[in-house]
Design goal:
This protein is α+β, with helices and mostly antiparallel strands. It has 15 helices and 13 strands. The strands form three sheets. It has an eight-stranded antiparallel β-sheet with strand order 2-1-13-12-11-10-9-8, with helices on both faces. Strands 3-7-4 form a three-stranded antiparallel β-sheet. Residues 1-30 have low confidence and may be disordered.
């Protein structure tokens, strides 16, 4: 199936009494399809959030490998009339990490890199605090957050606008808390060493390689890198921070663009819908199923305290989180945060069903609840009702 056939068949169905109303309200919606109850419910949930808590949002829903909804809600900035759309650009924050693992897989496939290439001496300028343990750190450890280094090393310096080049010189001061591969510790600065390895192996700077090998062949038309890539387009969101009376607009945060493999990508819900289809294996000439399987494979048990006890078997793969939900397996996820922005992407590889949810305000509860809402609806309509009808 082509990644992008311009989405004319996008969604919504339901009871016949509601169909004409749905088509009137959503001109981008098309013929009915099974399980679109999920779409109706998610649409209603986002409408409620935009009406009461956030300036705007962008939503994409895929059911059984078919894009069923692409829609924007609200405005790109409070106090303006610029409408959000599914083509509105967002900083993806940590969803950017999923592109680094994919870029690595392309080079592994060409035998220009290996998942287990050692960081040292491949990157000659990198030194670790413990040379013996540092000699064991591999590209796989970078992409799975299992370097053994203190978690979130120097993310605070990034937020204080210290340059990545300067921070990189301080890697040798970061302590190991476990042997490489033995524990999970989420990183941004350290994760970005993967970008340097990709650049060295490909002979191109990291953003150029990702753009030419992923964005362009997948027709991710709104995807870009960096602050300039974000601000150069008029159809973009304005970040907002949470305040007592709602959400207040702030300037885009430049800091995390310093680490493009960790948080450097900008894209729209349309782009991420295509990215999700690629994760389902719809574009094997770009991302081979065998490579996707490696990236989606659980590598290390990770914490997921933000979702309390609702998820189980939470692991980190290569650039992706994996988890089970109420006995259901096959879920893949990544979220992102930078000042004023929250992003979520979650899907199930077994049924090729998922959701992209992007919002322009730091409302963490709204973002997390949407993930849980999707999971609840998935279980109800993709599993429970199917089992009930078959009994």
């Amino acid at each position: 199936m082509a990644v992008f056939s311009w989405f004319p068949r996008l969604l919504i169905l339901g009871l016949s009494c509601c169909l004409w109303l749905g088509l009137f309200m959503f001109p981008q919606l098309a013929s009915a399809a099974p399980k679109d109850e999920i779409v109706y419910a998610l649409d209603e949930k986002v409408r409620a959030a935009v009406a009461s808590k956030i300036p705007g949002a962008s939503l994409a829903v895929i059911i059984n490998g078919q894009i069923r909804l692409l829609r924007g809600y609200g405005v790109t900035k409070t106090g303006t009339k610029q409408q959000m759309s599914s083509a509105t650009r967002f900083p993806l924050a940590s969803i950017s990490k999923t592109f680094a693992s994919a870029a690595t897989s392309l080079l592994v496939d060409k035998q220009l890199l290996d998942w287990d290439t050692h960081v040292v001496p491949y990157l000659e300028h990198v030194e670790f605090s413990d040379p013996q343990q540092g000699s064991a750190v591999t590209l796989r450890h970078l992409l799975s957050h299992t370097t053994g280094l203190v978690p979130q090393a120097y993310s605070d310096l990034l937020e204080d606008n210290v340059s990545y080049r300067r921070i990189r010189q301080m890697v040798k001061l970061i302590d190991f808390v476990c042997a490489p591969g033995n524990c999970y510790g989420y990183q941004n600065v350290i994760y970005n060493l993967s970008a340097e390895m990709i650049a060295q192996a490909s002979g191109q700077d990291y953003p150029t390689f990702v753009r030419e090998q992923l964005f362009i062949p997948l027709e991710m038309d709104h995807a870009s890198f960096g602050l300039d890539g974000f601000t150069s387009h008029s159809n973009r969101v304005t970040p907002h921070v949470k305040v007592k009376k709602g959400c207040a607009a702030v300037k885009p945060q430049a800091a995390y663009y310093e680490v493009p493999a960790a948080a450097g990508v900008n894209a729209s819900a349309q782009d991420l819908a295509k990215w999700m289809l690629a994760q389902f294996g719809h574009n094997p000439t770009v991302l081979k199923p065998s490579l996707l399987e490696i990236m989606h494979k659980p590598h290390i048990r990770a914490n997921q305290r933000r979702y309390k006890a609702k998820l189980s078997n939470v692991y980190y793969g290569l650039g992706w989180r994996t988890f089970d939900y109420q006995g259901l397996t096959g879920f893949i996820h990544h979220g992102g945060w930078i000042k004023g922005i929250r992003t979520e992407m979650v899907f199930n590889t077994v049924t090729q069903t998922g959701m992209v949810f992007l919002i322009n305000c730091e409302q963490n509860t709204v973002a997390r609840n949407m993930v849980l809402e999707f999971l609840k609806l998935y279980k109800k309509y993709m599993v429970d009702e199917v089992q009930s009808s078959g009994s």
